[in-house]
Amino acid sequence: MSNLKYRLAIIVGLVLVSAWALFPRDVKTRQRHADGTFYDTVTRRVPLRKGLDLSGGMHLALDVDESKGVVANKSEAIDRALKVVRTRIEGMGVSETIVQKAGNDRILVDIPGIDDRERAIKIAQDQAFLAFQITDKTNAMEKLLPRLDGIARAKGYGVASTAAAPGAKAPSAGLNGLLTSDSAKGAKPDSAKADTAAAQATGEISKLILASPYQMPGEFVYDSKYDDLLKRFFADSSVIAVLPPGKVVRFGSDSTVVQGATYRFLYVLDERPIMTGEHLKDAKPSSSPLDGTVVQFTLDNEGGRRFQRETAKHLKDYMAIVLDNVVMGRPPVIQGTIGTSGQITMGQGRDLQAAQDLSLVLKAGALPVPLKVAEVRNIGPSLGHDSINHALTAGVIAVVLVVLVMLVYYRFSGFLAVLGLLLYVLYTLATLAGFDAVLTVPGLAGFVLSIGIAVDANVLIFERIREELDRGKTVRTSIEEGFHHAKSAIIDSNVTTVLTAMVLYQFGTGPVKGFAVTLIAGIIASMVTAIFVVRTFFLLWLNRSRGAQTLSI
Amino acid sequence: MLRILHGTKIDFIRPWRIAVGITVAFIALGFVMLGVHEARHGSALAQSIEFTGGTLMQLEFQQPPDVGQIRATVDAAGFPGSEIQQFGTDREFTVRAAGQSNEAGQGVENTAKRIQTALEQKFGTNDMKVVRTEIIGPRVGKELTRNAALAILISLGVTLLYLAFRFEWRFGVAAVIATGHDLLSTLAFLAIMRIEVSLTVVAALLTVIGYSLNDTIIIFDRVREDLKKNRTDSLYTVLNKAINETLPRSVLTHVTVAMATLSLLLFAGEVIRPFSWIMLFGIVTGTFSSIYIAGPVLLWIEHRWPRPHGERRPVMQNAAAAPARPAGRATAGVR
What we know:
The structure holds 2 protein chains of 2 kinds.
Chain A: H1 2-22, E1 25-32, E2 38-45, E3 49-50, H2 52-55, E4 57-64, H3 74-90, E5 98-102, E6 106-112, H4 117-125, E7 130-134, H5 140-155, H6 160-164, H7 175-180, H8 189-195, E8 210-211, E9 219-223, H9 227-235, H10 237-242, E10 247-258, E11 261-270, E12 275-276, E13 280-288, E14 292-299, H11 301-313, E15 319-323, E16 326-327, E17 341-345, H12 352-364, E18 371-379, H13 381-434, E19 438-439, H14 441-470, H15 475-507, H16 510-544
Parallel strand pairs in A: 3-19, 10-16
Antiparallel strand pairs in A: 1-2, 4-6, 4-18, 5-6, 7-12, 7-15, 8-9, 9-11, 10-11, 13-14, 14-17, 15-16
Helix pairs in contact in A: 1-13, 1-16, 3-4, 3-12, 13-14, 13-16, 14-15, 14-16, 15-16
Chain B: H1 16-41, H2 49-52, E1 54-61, H3 67-76, E2 83-87, E3 89-97, H4 107-123, E4 128-136, H5 138-166, H6 169-193, H7 199-229, H8 235-245, H9 247-267, H10 273-292, H11 294-304, H12 331-334
Helix pairs in contact in B: 1-6, 3-4, 5-6, 5-7, 6-7, 6-10, 6-11, 7-8, 7-10, 9-10, 10-11
């Protein structure tokens, strides 16, 4: 029976291939250093990776943010942004991260195991546009204040909350008044307050903006409780319109506490940066006793030359280090020319983690387009663990029930079908591993369901064999006919399901894709086991019990 | 040999009017419920945030909390009208804040942050954990809604094409109409149970489509075979015979699938529960439609557009034996 030998060889071969596909193994992959050179790393490839809903972790979808201007070629911009985001995410040191483009204008990011949602979003989304800008020396703000008050009145930017909040000190001292009095000798906010303590806020912006106690040109302070108000105010298009050409207003990351009140910084800067982050070569976190946590950076040669030239022109000026339109730390004074290296002060309350993340995004480069978060899914690891346990319980119970039904109803033939079912489970898992599929909660449900459906093909065949036996045919002929006649029904009915699953795969996302893949793998495996494997078992049995008159079915 | 329902000769097609009456009533009830929900909740079908956009957080408490407190905390955080629901055990709850209109910058993310901070302050990080957060921007929701609708339509179209190719067009149309019925009745089921439509539910819906078609095809395959073998019987007789012949298979397969589905429903956890309900209903409606929708529709098509002369055969054995003529509109012509 050479035919039978081939059949057995194929089955054993399939089992071996499946087992091989399911064993974790070490895979050598080429990776790229940040400086562009390649190196080989050995990673352990575990088949059937758990999806984020099982392992816990975070899924992010990022869209192009067009709120600040239309982006002409989104697809191309996304391609460039993709590289940046990928470098950043891979730099986080989490294994098995996925960064991919979806459609024309979306980036999908999967980070398994991470629970700090905000940190991950910040790393992925921060534009990281770094610029060095000189603070304003032309007293632009002072000249502008009366007009700003006018706009504030016209547009109703008020500080009504001051009067309403009981016990709130009136912190606002008019900058105008401050300037007319003697403020040349470093008017501290507290002394300024003492001078004009009686001046209640009347909804005038000028009363909120105080001269800097540090005598830095272009630097101002304000009480942190007006943070929202001022940020809204300076984002107003009519305010931006009255700013002198070539000047911009930026807020600082730092704050200072005077007499229990927190003050934040506000800067007027030259719009043209003397340097941008595109020449940045390296960045690393560090801490210094003087400045706290800092990020040290190195520029490339061209950037170094340009930086040297520009800083030479601006000796004794203050240089603001602006990251995504926020002034980092307080602008240092340019003491002498600066070459290829410098540092960014993180500001108070920022730990080493923040400096690490900033180094990461700076090194990866700025995003070519601003991105906004379109979707976040964050699943805690405990929930994923529960899901696996639940699915396992349901799976085991389903298998036991199905096996019982098959054994009770079909006896010996049922036993053969159960053997087939074992191989079915193996083949399905191996096919999934082969597709490099990701296991998800719906995927597991689909797998459990497919165990119930998988025996359908066997049932069809067995019922057919029974009918043929009823017609008085011999056991061997009945088996032959049974398999032969049931085949068309099995194939037709399964092909339609596969087609539906393929559509689902095309249109589904994440977990649902996992479901579709499981369904497809399950159906293919069930056809192979029912039509080929179980048939071989029958042939084997026929061979051993030559001339059997009865079949237990 | 253990046998169930073997050698039956039940006239399945005969009470088709009653069957169709029941299913029409069920679907009508479903659509009434859709109207009721529309009036009461403002949405005909409960949709998950995947479709509506918004923020969903799943909370896990050490001790069963007071739902009123959760609601008050979320309200105070600035999100009145959020839905708070128990999710599985009495220690797990979901908070669902309405979709946000502004998508600018980190607007989408802020809602979750504010609710989480407020809840953690109220209940403490030891006694309460946020185990899942889903934040969906409005644009993503719209895309998903469109994709889900497309997926259902395309899969119907693709199956129709395949069936037309493998069978004869009459069979294909009958099978697709039966499937359309399953879609409607499952929709009615969704409305009556007010199951939240999520992507997983759409996946379940498509699985039901596949499963029901599977069942229809098994019967049609037998019809196709019997038609070839036996050239004198009417289609009515052949159809009934095919259903009877495949009855043991149907029962057994449905039992095993129902067992798998029941174990999912009972043991696989809250996330998969809507999926399991729909599958369970799908088994029932799929079986029903394969017999009572696909069959009569096939007879009706056969009656309206008979085969060419060479292969003509009577649709009915004789008019008296088949009072349940499945072609209401064509009555005059037959008489």
